[in-house]
Amino acid sequence: MNKVIKTDICVIGAGSGGLSVAAGAVQMGADVVLVEKAKMGGDCLNTGCVPSKALLAAAHAVQNARTASRFGVTTGQVEVNFAKAMDHVHSVISGIAPHDSVERFEDLGCTVIQAEGRFIAPDTLIAGDTEIRAKRFVIATGSRAAVPPIPGLDSVSYFTNENIFENRVCPEHLIIVGGGPIGLEMAQAHQQLGAKVTVIEMMTILPKDDPDMVEVVRDAIKASDITLYEGAKTKEVKSSGDKVRVIIEHDGIEITLEGSHLLLATGRRPNVENLGLEQAGIAFERTGISVDARLRTSNRKIFAIGDVTGGLQFTHMAGYDAGIVIRNALFKLPAKVNYSAVPWVTYTHPEVAQVGMTEATARARYGDNIRVVKWDYAENDRARAEDDTTGFIKVITSSKGHILGAGIVGRQAGELIGVWSLAISRKMKIGAIAGMITPYPTLGELSKRVAGAWYTPSLFSEKTRKIVRFLLKLG
Ligand SMILES: Cc1cc2nc3c(=O)[nH]c(=O)nc-3n(C[C@H](O)[C@H](O)[C@H](O)COP(=O)(O)OP(=O)(O)OC[C@H]3O[C@@H](n4cnc5c(N)ncnc54)[C@H](O)[C@@H]3O)c2cc1C
Ligand SMILES: NC(=O)c1ccc[n+]([C@@H]2O[C@H](COP(=O)([O-])OP(=O)(O)OC[C@H]3O[C@@H](n4cnc5c(N)ncnc54)[C@H](O)[C@@H]3O)[C@@H](O)[C@H]2O)c1
């Protein structure tokens, strides 16, 4: 006989999205049941953002040591203990884990059930031996690595984001299929930690980003000894003793690569299986659960948020979605998502950050009725002081100066994009950024200078000179 719980909100999945809804809802007075079948914290904490950025931090430490001689610092031979780098990764995860733990959520007042959730009716979920009847459900079951249909893949062992952070031996030669954010972040991390790395991308790397910015990353990757094949077809994978062979076709030529390890970083699949979506009357597609602008599924009492909806798959988006659901489910407000000011960052060196429209999107929508301004890192004194002048900031505005989008490629691009997110979400004009006082010398001055560049043609024009000369004559 199943135990029956009646509750206000039942959240399925304790990752970035589910935890945000549960924590918010319970602290605002709702009865909340949280169902998680694996580790609390989901992908971001255990197999995504946190371990990848921690590994990159270790890799950057190595790179800084290797290149310190340009500052007159002698380090001697730089040695990497790969297992200790992974210890760092896991200590960061352990440090954050209490915040996402069962104990914390139970202390907040949630009922946490550690089992797989599956709908058996439009208003009932079963998890272990508990039947949960909720006024509202929130599906936040995330996504997993997509495994492409490459012949031979089932005969070799390979990494995905789910197991690569368990590896404690530096790969001799890591072959990565996929040149998106996961592929490139892992490529640089492993290359800097001492592995030989090859990336195979079927189209172009970072296909969702501005090609001008991607060009800067491509140059950096090629300069760093990572071998990159773009427009390459992965035809077959074979094992060869303790090695893996990957046969690709590139520029009409067949190439056999031999590596010690293989990583698949070829996109994501939403976790929609075994959820009983049909029993709950929830429509879904291969790309994810279909939702309206209020994040309601086709069963209006059930919401879906984060990666499982197949939209922009970022932790901050799952968190944003959670806020929309809380307003709808708890406060009965018809809050709708607005994705016009969503930033994203790929943490390569140089970093790539984007918010709002890219130049291509803006041109597709407004034709030539836009303005594009750029400013180089090479013109920034702080970037010079730190001997890291690669990159630029690019801002796209309407002809009247409304900010439509901004992209930054270079050092700390991710830290710099925030001001542009705020500007776009608050519908600011470029003058607001140009008028801002930024401390000297900071990379933040890049934003002010690019905004200033918007005014340069009119500010230093013959017309302005005539007006100034006239006014000065008045005494
Ligand atoms: C390598 C990597 C690096 C990344 N780096 C970044 C980054 O730097 N910045 C960024 O913003 N994003 C990053 N992401 C993306 C980010 O991790 C995801 O967008 C985010 O975790 C999505 O949150 P979510 O709540 O939708 O899903 P998840 O965090 O995946 O949580 C879903 C949870 O649901 C559980 N679950 C699934 N099915 C059931 C079920 N039937 N019953 C019970 N529980 C279930 C799962 O076990 C999981 O814990 C990265 C992803 C990867 C893979
Ligand atoms: N810094 C970040 O915020 C960050 C970092 C990592 C991941 N993520 C999130 O996770 C998602 C997944 O990352 P991802 O890099 O796996 O996916 P992705 O979809 O962004 O990129 C996958 C890449 O693999 C290529 N590809 C697909 N099949 C291939 C094949 N058979 N052979 C060669 N190339 C192939 C695609 O053309 C694409 O360029 C991202 O879109 C993002 O939402 C974010």
TrEMBL record:
Residues 342-446 form the Pyridine nucleotide-disulphide oxidoreductase dimerisation domain. FAD binds at residues 53, 117, 141-143, 307. Disulfide bonds join 44-49. NAD(+) binds at residues 178-185, 201, 267. Pfam families: Pyr_redox_2, Pyr_redox_dim. Keywords: Disulfide bond, FAD, Flavoprotein, NAD, NADP, Nucleotide-binding, Oxidoreductase, Redox-active center. Its cofactor is FAD. PROSITE patterns: PYRIDINE_REDOX_1. One of its GO terms (molecular function) is NAD(P)H dehydrogenase (quinone) activity. This is Dihydrolipoamide dehydrogenase. It comes from Thalassospira profundimaris.
